[in-house]
Amino acid sequence: MGMMLGKISVETPKYQVIHSTKDYEIRKYGSAVVAEVTYDPDQFNSNKDGGFMILANYIGALGNPQNTKPEKIAMTAPVITKAGPSEKIAMTAPVVTQSKGGRGESVTMQFILPSKYAKAEDAPRPVDERVVVREEGEKKYAVVRFSGLTGEKAVAEKAEKLKAWLERDGFKVAGDFVLARYNPPWTLPPLRTNEVMIPVE
């Protein structure tokens, strides 16, 4: 019931707020180990979150874990989604697909693994070769939080506003935006926690 009502009861990444305004925050995140899959959303037909299922199978969220130990890995939040390099986003990375589909565009989805996995080699190896486990170094992100649905248009508007605020305040954008979603899809939309995150220098 808590998950339906938006309660976040899983591990989330630790960060330090280094700048805050009424519109957004600048956060510094430590290094983390992630499991990710890059895929063409069109291969899943109507299910544009097919990458989620691949990663959920790896950690054992839906049954037996598909890794070489096999070891169940605790779910964390958020789930991160970003468009692949072939995607041209008007903007210019904790699930929405930014790709329009039908043009061979790819999407990368990430699960941030629990902090007990300090290095990539500490995590169980995936059985599915589409899943890549790797380390990400420290990063700074500008973040705007919002509730509701994460349709393509709504997310793009949030990203455009955040970019404009960053330019206004003299911050340099260091890459494309990513979407962080903290709740499962059955959470009531007004109670969902979502964030658009833009890397900054």
From TrEMBL:
InterPro entries: Reg_factor_effector_dom_sf (IPR011256), SOUL_heme-bd (IPR006917). It holds the Pfam family SOUL. Signal peptide: none annotated. It comes from the Eukaryota. PANTHER family: HEME-BINDING PROTEIN-RELATED, SOUL HEME-BINDING FAMILY PROTEIN. Belongs to the HEBP family. This is SOUL heme-binding family protein. It comes from Dorcoceras hygrometricum.
